[in-house]
Amino acid sequence: MTIPPEVYARRTNPPAFNVPGIVLALVVAVLVIYGGVSNLPEATQNEIVVLFGLFPGRFTEVPGHPDLVFPGGLAGKLFSLISYTFLHGSWSHAVVNAVWLLAFGSPIARRIGTVRFLLFYFACGIVGGLLHVWLNAGSLVPVIGASAAISGMMGGAARFVFLADGPLGGLGGAPYPSSAPRAQASIGRALTDRRVLIFVGVWIGLNFLFGPTGITPTGENVSVAWEAHLGGFLAGLLFFGFFDPYRTSPSGGPGNVGYGEWSGRNKLP
Predict the structure, then answer these.
(1) Measured distance CA(163)–CA(113) in Å, rounded
(2) How far is residue 148's CA from residue 160's CA, in Å, rounded to a whole number?
(3) 110-147 burial, b if ≥16 CB within 10 A, otherwise e?
(4) Assigned CATH for 5-243
């Protein structure tokens, strides 16, 4: 079958600004929400954090405060596992998270689609939040920020970015061909790839280095919820396969479909 020139051009010449809409929407939400909250009176900001931030003490008994009750009850507990990802402590916190979300969320969203991306994103945020709650039971120090969910995007991306059809497939291997068949991003394959192991090792090492100390690479001393980062990253790395189903070619024959070629937008005539 002959591929029309206009179809070939559409495949090989993607737009310069090619951010999936759902990723852009999350980035805008993060920045707009912080911009709005930061302009409120300090007392109102604190109330918002109490209502929507992630407090380990909301889930477990607080030592010395057995009668402490957070607003919202059970619904507040469940909702805070998602709402905390939209709150941030400073413009630098919000902007840095937005940049990392653009970098790692975009390839994930392109690969698995909008609905699966949202489920995966918030699942990683929830797992990261729960690990933080478990390791800091009874704490009244709130966790805010999208870092756990974004860490999950990094873990999920590690499963496929180094494959032949992935964005970094040419690093340490064969050059990335635009028509390469989409390879299955299995956890076994990922954990036997030296590049993936290096990426995972460096990421975990940096979090253990800077997380507990609160010292950032810029020298700034901040409170880092490294437990939530670790939980989100491991959730993304281990569970990405559940959101990335193995698909056969449209003809039903063996092998995978091309990377992004049969998403519904780019079907050949």
Answers:
(1) 19
(2) 20
(3) bbbbeebbeebbebbbbbbbbbbbeebebbeebbbbbb
(4) 1.20.1540.10
Distances (CA, A) of 245 to 139, 157, 257: 39, 15, 12
Please count the residues of the chain. 269
Contact in structure between 83 and 55 (CB atoms under 8 Å): no
pTM: 0.78
Query: pLDDT for 16-45, tens place per residue?
Result: 458 999 999 999 999 999 999 999 999 999
Token pair in block for residue 70 = 């957070």
Q: Where do the structural domains in the chain lie, given as residue ranges? A: 5-243
Which residue has 């479909």 as its token pair? 257
Residue whose tokens read 């992004």: 260
Question: Could you tell me which residues come within 8 angstroms of residue 133 by beta carbon, excluding any fewer than 6 positions away?
Answer: 54, 56, 59, 60
User: Would you state the structure tokens that stand for residue 245, as one six-digit string?
Assistant: 């189903």
Residue-wise pLDDT for 110-146, tens only, equals 999 999 999 999 999 999 999 999 999 889 999 999 9
